[in-house]
Amino acid sequence: MARYNEWQNRSLYGAADTLSAEARRQDRGAFFGSIHGTLSHLLWADEQWMSRFTDVPKPTGEGKDSPGYCPDWAELKPRRLALDQKITDWAHAMPANGTEGDLTWYSGLAKAQRTKSRSMLFAHFFNHQTHHRGQVHAMLTAAGAKPDDTDLMLLK
Hints:
mainly alpha
C-alpha cells in the first residue's frame, strides 16, 4: 500500500501540474473544496499519522484547517514526495510482527485519547489516502487533466 500511495500521488501531482494555480484552487464541491486543499489535507493527515507511527514531526494546526496547511504548490509537491519516501521506508522496515498490538494517541477529531489495534490503524491510514485521492482524481478529470488509472492491480 505504501508503493501504491507513492505511485498514485506521483500521478495526481503530475496531472495537477498541468492545471493553473487558479484551477487547482477552484472550489469543486469536495469535502476540502479544491484539488490543492484536498492534497494539502492529505499531507497534513499523513504527517499526523506518521507522527504517531514514527518520528515524523507532528503537523501544526487541526484537521479543519488542513486545506490551508501547505498553501504554496511549489512547497507542497516536494514535501509530498519526501513524505511518501518516509512512508515507503517505514513500511519496508516494518518487522513481521509490526502490526501487532495497540497504539494509544490523543485524537484531535474525537477530542479524547483513543486506543486501537495497530493493524486497524495502518489499514485506516492507507484507506484514508485512497478515499481522498479518489476525490482528487475525480476533480482532476473534471478539470480536463489526465491522471493515471487507479486500479491496484496495475501497480508494478
